[in-house]
Design goal:
By secondary structure, the chain is an alpha/beta fold. It is built from five helices and seven strands, in the order αβββαβαβαββα. The mean pLDDT is 87.
Length: 187
């Protein structure tokens, strides 16, 4: 009879160990999820916010003189990294085009083409239009300098050249206005 009791207790101890192990794995995961429940996924921090934006010299898609960030100082800049193969980029394009038209000379909008072909971009812009320049980023050097890890990503740069805010994901009119305000670039 004592052997039977020993056999009965062994599975019970094993079940308690499995339960304890499961709790040790699941509890931290649940805690992380609960702590991040109210966070906006588009507000991903960047160590560049509050610092001078990395300078660049990029060629416009349509030719002409290269554009440098230094040449844009004195006016706020909305710097949008995008690609034609990116579905969220397609969603936000009308918002950016409309805002660039309505804000005119008060805020400078610039698109930086991320890992895309000139042919694809020209076709896209011919079909959908644009109201701001798109710049070629060969080798994605500018994207790397800004720490881009996916598109669309948009940086809001103040008139002195400091990064005031960053937005990850597609911009809709409300989120664009909110980021402009956050960056002190109220429309």
């Amino acid at each position: 009879m004592s052997q039977a009791k020993a056999v009965e207790r062994k599975p019970r101890t094993l079940n308690q160990r499995v339960l304890l192990l499961a709790l040790l794995v699941v509890a931290p995961l649940v805690a992380v999820l609960l702590l991040n429940l109210g966070r906006n996924p588009h507000l991903i921090g960047s160590p560049l916010v509050g610092r001078a934006a990395p300078d660049f010299t990029l060629q416009p898609l349509d030719g002409g003189a290269p554009v440098t960030l230094a040449s844009l100082r004195g006016r706020p800049v909305v710097l949008n990294f995008w690609a034609t193969w990116c579905m969220p980029c397609l969603e936000e394009h009308p918002t950016l085009v409309s805002a660039a038209r309505s804000l005119g000379e008060r805020v400078r909008f610039i698109g930086v083409i991320y890992e895309d072909s000139e042919e694809q971009v020209r076709g896209f812009l011919a079909r959908r239009g644009s109201s701001y320049p798109s710049l070629l980023d060969p080798g994605s050097r500018t994207a790397i300098a800004f720490g881009i890890f996916g598109v669309p990503e948009t940086y809001f740069i103040d008139a002195e050249g400091k990064i005031a805010a960053k937005h990850v994901g597609p911009l809709d009119p409300a989120s664009l206005e909110a980021r402009l305000r956050q960056a002190g670039l109220a429309p």
